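FAQ
Q: What does a multi-component entry look like?
A: The components come first, one per line:
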Amino acid sequence: QLQDKLESVFRNLRGQGVLSEENISDSLREVRRAFLEADVNFKVTKQFIDKIREKAVGTEVIKSIKPGQLIIKIIHDELVDLLGKEYVPIYENKSSLTIIMVVGLQGSGKTTFCGKLALKLKKEKKSVVLAGADVYRPAAKDQLKTLGKSMGIPVVTDDSKDAVQICKNAVKYAVDNYADYVILDTAGRLHIDEKLMAELQEVKSSVNPNEILFVVDAMTGQDAVNSAKEFSEQVDYDGIVLTKMDGDAKGGAALSIRTITGKPIKFIGVGEKPTDLEIFHPDRLASRILG
Amino acid sequence: LKAKSKIDEELLEEIEEILITGDIGVDTTFTIMENIRQRVKKERYENPEELNFLLRDEIDKFIISEESNDFEIKSNAPLHVIFVIGVNGSGKTTSIGKLAAIYKSKGKKVMLAACDTFRAAACEQLEVWAERAGVAITRLADQTDPSAVIFEAMQRARNGNYDVLLIDTAGRLHTKTNLMLELGKMEKVIKRFIPEAPHETLLVIDATTGQNGLSQARHFTKTAKLSGLILTKLDGTAKGGIVIGITQELQIPVKYIGVGEQIEDLRPFSSKEFVEALFD
Ligand SMILES: Nc1nc2c(ncn2[C@@H]2O[C@H](COP(=O)(O)OP(=O)(O)OP(=O)(O)O)[C@@H](O)[C@H]2O)c(=O)[nH]1
Ligand SMILES: Nc1nc2c(ncn2[C@@H]2O[C@H](COP(=O)(O)OP(=O)(O)OP(=O)(O)O)[C@@H](O)[C@H]2O)c(=O)[nH]1
Ligand SMILES: [Mg+2]
Ligand SMILES: [Mg+2]
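Then the predicted structure of the entire assembly, as tokens:
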């Protein structure tokens, strides 16, 4: 796709020695278009293009490699570098309980992810407890209870509107039952909702999670950096989960968020079933964005 | 932008950035920018107000919305059927709850069909909304074929002289062939019951959606011809600009916008307000 476009830009360039500013400016325009159409943030795209220009100018055009391919390689490597070269696992408290808190915007896939993570840990022979702390959404607690029941994992919740207390209860239950992990499912919320962001901060200060994961829908567009940045500043998180990657969204939001916040992408959601969870591979996402 | 009184390249770049960061997309932005440049060449600008008017006018031209939209049912059908579809988590179930309340307040007898028989607690979620809105609901056991729920709901709605039937469907990614086939089958069942139905097929789009929204609309309309859009979560910071490209390409209006999670948080779409919000 992008490779073909760049090839046509470079048709006259073969064997010309080095890449110059002029002959790559057309190709960079194509790259910019590809990035924006892949939902990479406007400013992040500009930053990235400037960096590629820096790396590409003066590069020797090896006789055997097409210039278009060379630019693609420079971009691909830079992308993989940016997205995070290695997998950063979630925190594991070997001697006692690990508390994981899951946060994000409405409908991003948090509850489904809590089920997926719980199942993955259970398969690794860990004992897991789920906390149903979404006290707002109709039948949210039922949703998590149904998930927990399907995989034989206890769900701690109650009929109250007190998310903080539910989380505390879940941690206490986990401690009393010698569980290895407790996963806190929270309500979807807007980063500009002061009351709900304060609720998250209160949960955090009450139970001190070891790991906070920010769940993002892969089809998110330019707004991705706004929510990611705000959640990072107000709550702070340790990693990102990118959901609904089983669709055809390019997932450029992941690059934007990673660039702006520096947080590692830890998991990828690839379907609605509890088994549809993958570890993040930067090279796969790089190829997808450039697709 | 408000302080500028003349159009220079710097201002045009600023406008382009606003459009792109509003998720309007590369092609649509390019076309709008071209139109602005052409118009600026031909006309003269004395002050910022005239310039601002020009910008808003050019963008507004691109958006398809309805002349008067006050939640009035436009069809004369004895039973008005509304089919609500879209990708996972976009806000379908919540929007149906809001619409149900609105139609009820207009004196309509409303029935909901719980056709998401797949996802955990999906029917329970719609049941809460039916109760909140004070309307009837048809639901069968989980994992029942959704087409069977449609059949049951249309039967009950017709026999009970209901005015409006709102059909909630499971979220589905438009690239999943089997799920799109399921949707097509549901539409056929609707048509078999009432040939003119569904009278409205609304695609629900999350305002935070980027360029993938275009792919969603293109795929969904092939399976169940879309009549309009509901743009949700506009109470956030996302502008929802993707609907501009969608409405242009499919020639369908944005009908409603979701501005919150409560039952009263649904409004008719206003292109003027939408364009204004782009520049906030
Ligand atoms: N195809 C696909 N669907 C997903 C994925 N993750 C979640 N979903 C679906 O997305 C929808 C929303 O998922 P939820 O888990 O309810 O999202 P949430 O973030 O908990 O939503 P709120 O609690 O309302 O904020 C559901 O239909 C899920 O089945 C994924 O990786 N792929
Ligand atoms: N802030 C805000 N949240 C909304 C709006 N509309 C829906 N939501 C929230 O978005 C989340 C998903 O809404 P649902 O109605 O479950 O979405 P859905 O499309 O039915 O989801 P699936 O059936 O799982 O595909 C819930 O947390 C809703 O409260 C809106 O206009 N604004
Ligand atoms: Mg949830
Ligand atoms: Mg739903």
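Q: Is there any commentary attached?
A: Sometimes. For this entry: The first helix of chain B runs from residue 9 to 21.
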